[in-house]
Amino acid sequence: MALKTNVYISDVTNLTEARYYAGMGVSIIGFNATSGTSSFASTQQFDAITSWLSGIQTAWQWHLAPSKELSELISSSPSDFIEICTVPLPEQWQFLTKPVLLRTSSIEDVHSIAGLPLNTVSGIVWEGDHSVLTPLSSDLLLFIQTEPPFAPLDSILDEHKGISLKGIPESRPGWNDFDQLADLLESLETN
């Protein structure tokens, strides 16, 4: 299945949903590395899930300041991207060894990355009002966070490059309710 836009799904926690997203043509799936959260995924879960997948990119979601611990995580379980929630301090960039997705609702964060060297940040996961965003570099991935109930996405997709969604936890092992999400992804199918 091919989608007419990039789709990033964060907070993936199980093989059932990861395989579903890969089969539906999702571009990137994210795994939350922040322990103590309901969507936490260990390196063992990440490795076990991603070993069953092909054709989909992965991201570690890191909601702390970039540190040596992040570098070690990436070394032990490599992903394609690192999602962070704040613009790092200059001394923290050394720990970001993969392309960066910045999750933010702050227009100031967006403006601050415009002043960084090229290819420092690969994309933005925007959680704010999408109408306040000005056109960004054409090389920058831009995902607009979307929550159920899903409104028609035509106006968003006319101006931006993709959408971001949160994963759906299993209600019991092997059982997910993908109905709303399936309708949304099917509406994004190329004809």
Task: Describe the secondary-structure layout.
Elements: E1 6-10, H1 15-24, E2 28-32, H2 43-50, E3 57-62, H3 68-76, E4 81-84, E5 100-104, H4 107-114, E6 123-126, E7 141-145, H5 154-159, E8 162-166, H6 179-187
Parallel strand pairs: 1-2, 1-8, 2-3, 3-4, 4-5, 5-6, 6-7, 7-8
What does this structure look like?
The protein is an alpha/beta fold and 191 residues long. The protein has a single domain, classed as TIM Barrel. The protein has helices spanning 15-24, 43-50, 68-76, 107-114, 154-159, 179-187; strands spanning 6-10, 28-32, 57-62, 81-84, 100-104, 123-126, 141-145, 162-166. It has an eight-stranded parallel β-barrel. Strand 3 (57-62), helix 3 and strand 4 form a beta-alpha-beta unit. The relative contact order is 0.19. The model has no long low-confidence stretch (mean pLDDT 85).
Summarize the structure.
This protein is α/β, with parallel strands linked by helices. The protein is 26% helix and 20% strand.
